[in-house]
Amino acid sequence: MNTQILQHSSTTNNLIRGGRKRLSLSVAAVLLGSSAAYADSGSHSHNDEDANHTNAKHQTISFSGSGYLGYRSDSNVSVSELDTNSGVADGAVQSEAQLKVLVKPTAKWENVLSVSQTNTNYQTLSEFDLRLTTLSASTSYAFEFAKLGAHYYHASAELDGRDFLTYQQSGLSVGKLLGQRTYLRVSSDLIDKQFENTPEGAPIRDSEAAAVRSDLFYFFEGEDFFQIALKYQNEDAQNNVFDYTGIGMDLAYTYPLAVFSKPLKLTVAYQLDVRDYASEQDGGIGREDDRHVVEMSADYAIHNNVDIKLSTQYGDFASSVDGANYQETIAELGINVHF
C-alpha cells in the first residue's frame, strides 16, 4: 500500500487513479487526488465535463453514486508519507463508496458536493490498513471568456484503525476551451497537513504548502484524448527536515473503443515528481527524491451501471533516504457499480 493521496483538482480526481487507487497524502488528488491526484470517479470524467460543459443538458439538481470492490496485489507495502516501506508483498481487499450531489441553478453555474470513503485491508500486514474519508465542495461559473471555479477538500485518514492524517486543500481555478479540441486549466491551492498519533520522539511532519498546476487536454476525432500536466509545490513543515520544493509532470492517453458492443476505455499514464528538500544550512539534510510511476488500466462497461476495472502500475521511488528509496508494483482487479 502507498498512502499517497493524489492532489485533487475540480478537473481531475486523479490523473493516474484507475484501478490502483493510489492514495497520495500530498493529495492533489487524489485527494480523494489525483491531482490533482490518480480520482475519480473515473480518472477523466471531470475533464470531459469541463471541456463540454456548455453542451450538457441543464438539470437543476441531480444525484450520483458508486460502489467499488476489488482485490489488489502489492509487491512492497509502503507508507510514503512516513518514508516507510516494508519490503514485503501482500494482498488487500479494496473497497470504496461515493455519493455526489450536483446543483445547477443555471446552465452556466455548477455546484458539486461529494462524500466518499475508501478502505484498504491487507491480508497479513494489518498495520498498513488504511481508511480514507473525503468531503469536497466546488463551485464554477462558465463566463464567456473562461470558466472560473473554487474548490475545497477535507480528507481524514486512519492507519491501522488510528487517526493518521487530516488533510485540507482549498483553491481557485480557471479553464478555457481553445478552439474545438484543446482545453486548458490552471489552478492554485493552499494545503494544510496535520499528522495524528505521532510516536514519542518522532519528528513532527505537520506542514503547509502552496501549489500550482496546469492541465492541457487535447481531444482527437475518435474521442480519444491526451493530457499533460505541469505542477509545482512548495511545502513548509514545522520541522525543516521536511521542507521541500517539488516540480512534476503527468502524462496520460485514453483510448475508448467497443468490445462485443460494450464500451472499453484503455489508459496509459506516467507521473514524474522531483523533490528538493532543505539543505543542511537551512536545517535539513539535503535530501533529494526522484519518483517515476507508470500505469496501464482498462475499464470495461459490462452493463450501463457496472464496470470491470483492471490496472497495473510500477513505481520507482529514488531517494537519498533509505525508507523512501524503493520500487513497488501494484496490480488490481475490481468491479464498480454506479448510478
Quick structural overview:
The chain has one helix spanning 45-51, and strands at 61-74, 78-79, 84-85, 90-103, 109-122, 130-142, 147-159, 162-178, 182-195, 207-219, 225-237, 244-259, 262-277, 288-303, 306-319, 326-338.
Number of helices: 1
- The Cα radius of gyration reads 19 Å
Helix proportion of residues, in percent? under 10%
The top-level CATH class of one domain is: Mainly Beta
Number of strands: 16
> Could you list the spans in which at least 5 consecutive residues all have pLDDT below 50?
1-56
Assign the CATH topology of one domain.
Answer: Porin
Distance between the termini: 28 Å
What structural class do the secondary elements suggest?
Answer: mainly beta
Q: Tell me about the biggest sheet? A: 14 strands, antiparallel, barrel
Strand content: over 45%
What general outline do the C-alpha atoms trace? globular
Biggest sheet: strand arrangement: 1-4-5-6-7-8-9-10-11-12-13-14-15-16
Mean pLDDT, nearest integer?
A: 86
What order do the helices and strands follow?
HEEEEEEEEEEEEEEEE
**Name of the CATH architecture of one domain:** Beta Barrel
Organism: Alteromonas marina
Keywords: Signal
InterPro entries: BBP2_2 (IPR018759)
Protein name: Beta-barrel porin 2
Walk me through what this model shows.
- With 339 residues, the chain is mostly beta strands.
- The protein has a domain at 45-62 and 97-120 and 130-313: Porin, CATH 2.40.160.
- 2% of the residues lie in helices and 60% in strands.
- The protein has 1 helix and 16 strands.
- The strands form 2 sheets. The chain has a 14-stranded antiparallel β-barrel with strand order 1-4-5-6-7-8-9-10-11-12-13-14-15-16. A two-stranded antiparallel ribbon has the order 2-3.
- Strand 11 and strand 12 form a beta hairpin.
- The longest helix is centred in the first third of the chain and has 7 residues, at 45-51.
- It is globular.
- The protein starts with 44 loop residues before the first helix and ends with a strand.
